[in-house]
UniProtKB/TrEMBL annotation:
This is Cell Wall Hydrolase. Residues 95-204 form the Cell wall hydrolase SleB domain. GO terms for molecular function: hydrolase activity. InterPro entries: Cell_wall_hydrolase_SleB (IPR011105), SleB_dom1 (IPR042047). It comes from the Bacteria. It comes from Epibacterium ulvae. Keywords: Hydrolase, Signal. Residues 1-22 form the signal peptide.
């Protein structure tokens, strides 16, 4: 009887130890996953979280390319990556149509998704900054201080930035990662496929490096 009892107690002790180890392993896994999520760029997390919503309803049906639609949206907020995108849209596209503003936002998002460019909005937008007129987005290296003088225009483009980061619209430019205004004719355009003309901007895709948005 004593031997049976000892065996049962030993088995119970082993089982309890196994449970404790399993709990410790699970906690370590959760900590690792949390650390990985914390290190992901904000816009990529937003895209992941919005995947289910996009599969149930076409993004294009949720967005109206009008100022009245933007004015009806709640005030936009976000962290550093959001601020970078909102600022870029203000200086690059505040005078564009609403659809044109979404298109410029999409180009920046497409660059983040491409392995040929940095993997965060701020890094994409500030690529080359510090070399006058050698950057990717001219306003960051033209030697002029970035001052937001039109708060209403900034409020609207900030909403565009928030919606774009949340995955509310996509494929406006058919996967473009480059654009220029109709006032110029840069030589690099010949190397790419023109995908759209929206407002005063022409959009291009490099077919050698297709992003998920252009598939």
């Amino acid at each position: 009887m004593k031997t049976t009892l000892l065996s049962a107690l030993s088995a119970a002790a082993i089982f309890i130890a196994s449970l404790a180890q399993a709990e410790a392993d699970l906690s370590a896994l959760f900590r690792t996953e949390r650390t990985s999520l914390d290190n992901l760029p904000e816009e990529r997390v937003a895209r992941f979280l919005s995947f289910g919503r996009k599969s149930r309803q076409s993004p294009e049906n949720k967005v109206q390319f009008s100022k009245s639609f933007l004015d009806a949206q709640p005030s936009a907020k976000g962290g550093e990556q959001f601020s970078c995108l909102a600022e870029a849209l203000y200086f690059e596209a505040r005078g564009e149509t609403v659809k044109g503003q979404f298109a410029v936002a999409e180009v920046i998002m497409n660059r983040v998704a491409s392995k040929r460019f940095p993997n965060s909005l701020c890094a994409v937008i500030n690529q080359g900054t510090g070399r006058k007129y050698q950057c990717q987005f001219t306003y960051t290296c033209d030697g002029h201080k970035e001052v937001i003088r039109e708060p209403k225009a900034y409020e609207r483009v900030a909403k565009v930035a928030r919606l774009a980061m949340d995955g509310a619209v996509s494929k406006v430019t058919d996967g473009a990662t480059y654009y220029h205004t109709t006032a110029v004719r840069p030589s690099w355009r010949r190397a790419f496929t023109q995908t759209a003309r929206i407002g005063v901007h022409m959009f291009y895709r490099d077919d050698r490096y297709r992003t998920a948005a252009s598939q």
